[in-house]
UniProtKB/TrEMBL annotation:
One GO MF term attached to the UniProt entry: ATP binding
Family under the similarity heading: Belongs to the CbbQ/NirQ/NorQ/GpvN family.
Protein name listed in UniProt: AAA family ATPase
Top-level taxon of origin: Bacteria
Coiled coil: none
Organism: Vreelandella nanhaiensis
Taxonomic classification: Bacteria, Pseudomonadati, Pseudomonadota, Gammaproteobacteria, Oceanospirillales
Length: 311
């Protein structure tokens, strides 16, 4: 069982660690624990997003981060936690997450060789009692009954009452709460994110910081791919980024219904290294999941960048 350092015991300079200007130093832990994410040496921090996340860690603000798929929302929070040595766990609010999963339930356990029934805390209760940053992924896809459970703890000092146990859970002073989503809580008008829903406005109002993270600039994406995929020629990476930019432009204009993300761009590069063929890698990474009618346009854009026609 992990033994946690209960409180931050050092400070982190945000300018040095994240290239983000903040008016105060960030509390941090000097030693990593079991649940501290691994550092990604190639990660690119977006200053505006990083500043919002640092507000969550340093000043206990509840941070809601939204944006398109594959833009690095959860990774941003995890990498900030990694640099602060702050334990961090993620819960995906899919349709199978129930109230009992978050709060807990009575379960049969073995004590001294005998079966006994006792209350086993859920992930939310467990995290609240520890110096842990909890990330609620796919927040706009959560079930309504689950969302009302979370609403109770959204205030900075939000306490959680366990009715079945006659117990009130007071959050640990270093418990932090974050959420990531594909929408701003108003529902999805693009049709890309099936299963998401409009959030309760009373709940959305309880998030202290709401910020959007889009895709990187072409320059930033190029630099990231060059750091991650050192074996790929720079010219090829530049063509990949240009192609991705044109595909996103076509999406914004309504000509495509499939959006190429940074995650897909990295997968394209990785598959290129595995196959030694960027064109086949493109087919496997993105082209094959496009609508058949739209593949003609994707092929035209690709030919403009690589002088090769996808088929």
């Amino acid at each position: 069982m992990t033994t946690y350092t209960l409180h931050p015991d050092t400070k982190c300079n945000p300018e040095e660690a994240f290239q983000a200007s903040m008016p105060w130093e960030i509390p941090a832990f000097s030693q990593p624990e079991e649940h501290v994410p691994e550092k990604d040496p190639h990660f690119h921090f977006v200053e505006s997003t990083t500043r919002a996340i640092l507000m969550g860690f340093a000043k206990n603000r509840r941070v809601y981060l939204y944006g398109p798929h594959g833009s690095g929302k959860s990774s941003h929070i995890e990498q900030v936690a990694a640099h602060l040595n702050w334990p961090c766990i993620r819960i995906n609010l899919d349709g199978h997450i129930t109230r009992a999963d978050l709060i807990g339930r009575d379960m049969v356990v073995i004590r001294d060789g005998k079966q006994v029934t006792e209350f086993v805390p859920g992930m939310l209760v467990w995290a609240m009692q520890r110096p842990i940053a909890l990330i609620l992924d796919e927040y706009d896809a959560g079930r309504p009954d689950v969302m009302f459970v979370i609403q109770r703890v959204l205030e900075t000092q939000g306490k959680l009452t366990l009715l079945d146990q006659n117990q009130v859970i007071t959050p640990h002073p270093c418990f932090r709460l974050f959420a990531t989503a594909n929408t701003a809580g108003q529902g999805d008008a693009s049709g890309l994110y099936v299963g998401t829903q409009a959030l309760n406005q009373a709940q959305l109002d309880r998030w202290h910081v709401i910020t959007e993270l889009g895709y990187m600039t072409a320059e930033a994406e190029t630099q990231l791919l060059e750091r991650k995929l050192t074996e790929l020629p720079s010219e090829q990476i530049q063509r990949m980024v240009t192609c991705a930019g044109l595909l996103r432009q076509a999406f914004n204009q309504g000509d495509l219904t499939t959006l190429i993300s940074l995650r897909t761009l990295i997968a394209w590069g990785e598959n290129t290294l595995l196959l030694g063929d960027p064109h086949e890698a493109m087919r496997l990474s993105f082209f094959n999941r496009c609508d058949e009618v739209e593949r003609v346009l994707v092929s035209e854009i690709y030919q403009r960048c690589f002088d090769v026609e996808l088929s």
